[in-house]
Amino acid sequence: MAEDRKSTNITWHEAEITRADRERLNGHKSCVIWFTGLSGSGKSTLAHAVENALFEAGCRTYVLDGDNIRHGLNRNLGFSPEDREENIRRIGEVANLFAQAGVIALTAFISPYRADRDKARALAGDAFFEIYVKCDLDICEQRDPKGLYKKARAGEIKEFTGISAPYDPPLHPELTVDTGVETLEESTQNVLAVLRTGGIIP
Amino acid sequence: MAEDRKSTNITWHEAEITRADRERLNGHKSCVIWFTGLSGSGKSTLAHAVENALFEAGCRTYVLDGDNIRHGLNRNLGFSPEDREENIRRIGEVANLFAQAGVIALTAFISPYRADRDKARALAGDAFFEIYVKCDLDICEQRDPKGLYKKARAGEIKEFTGISAPYDPPLHPELTVDTGVETLEESTQNVLAVLRTGGIIP
């Protein structure tokens, strides 16, 4: 019992664990990797491919995308301009919490408005990598993985990005990948190269 | 180049990284540790003390508390009943995302309503540990670390939990700690013991 108390005292820290402490434990820096692009451009596929490669290298990562956000944290948001802005605001805040926790957070949302993405960037500071997942609209529309373009063309979905709602392409992204030209593996390697150059991973 | 491609192919996974994969990498299970109790009961202090002990043991952890939530994700919420509910709903969702990411998420909020806490529990499933940070109101009021009780007694804060707003104590918490009686170290060890029994840490 006395032994227990003694060993507990030794490991006792008054100070709170810092982001730098967590990064040291993980063996890599943390950041936000923000994938933006049209529906069907391959944001989520690329984010998960990058996560797979990082995980294989022993990094702590997490992908925020429609699958885990739309029916959870943001299930009380619709598609009005205010709700779209709030959608991206919350995602930026949560991604930044993950980065504070030492995790490489990857976000995969259309995030069509430059102003909203810039706010997410401002939150994350230097540790923000905007990846423009560029892809010609006609290729996205051919892929149409969720049948959304078809519905948008039929007028069943109003204000669909690229068809009836604007997309502001990034002006100074850390990387542009063209998924209509590059293979998934090439795009993945290009993202990893940016993270290496940025000092996030060794 | 061919060499690169080959080695990349070897590490290529089609499947997404699962929570179990992340737990294996981390060497511990993930969960939500939900601290609830009156203002001044010591929730945040205890959460950080538990985090310190877990971090020393090499665990991946993150504390969600007023410091990183109130001025960030939940800065657009006030203190109406609807906003209080939404406050806890978002915290429950984010804590669950951290748990999905393999992290031990610790939350330190008054969270006075049983119904709201039960929703957070339902999200996290088995991996939810409700810690009732019990402390006599008069001790909390003596501590009054932020001067809030004084303001509440003076009528400057309306609907203050314990004074002019209700607190529903947990009916079946995984653990009750009484910070008016136990030392911080004792309470910390009691939480760690619950995590060991629950199979979260070795």
Q: Overall mean pLDDT score of chain A? A: 92
Gross CATH architecture of chain A: 3-Layer(aba) Sandwich
Tell me about the largest β-sheet of chain A.
Answer: 5 strands, parallel
Q: Report the radius of gyration of chain A as a whole number of Å.
A: 19 Å
What is the β-strand count of chain A? Answer: 5
Q: Beta fraction of the residues of chain A? A: 5-15%
What is the number of domains of chain A? 1
**Count of DSSP-assigned helices of chain A:** 9
Give the fraction of residues assigned to helices of chain A.
Answer: 40-55%
The first-to-last residue Cα distance of chain A is 43 Å
Strand order of the largest sheet of chain A: 2-3-1-4-5
Query: What is the C-level CATH assignment of chain A?
Result: Alpha Beta
What's the oligomerization state? homodimer
The name of the CATH superfamily of chain A reads P-loop containing nucleotide triphosphate hydrolases
What ranges of chain A have pLDDT less than 50 throughout 5 or more consecutive residues? 1-13
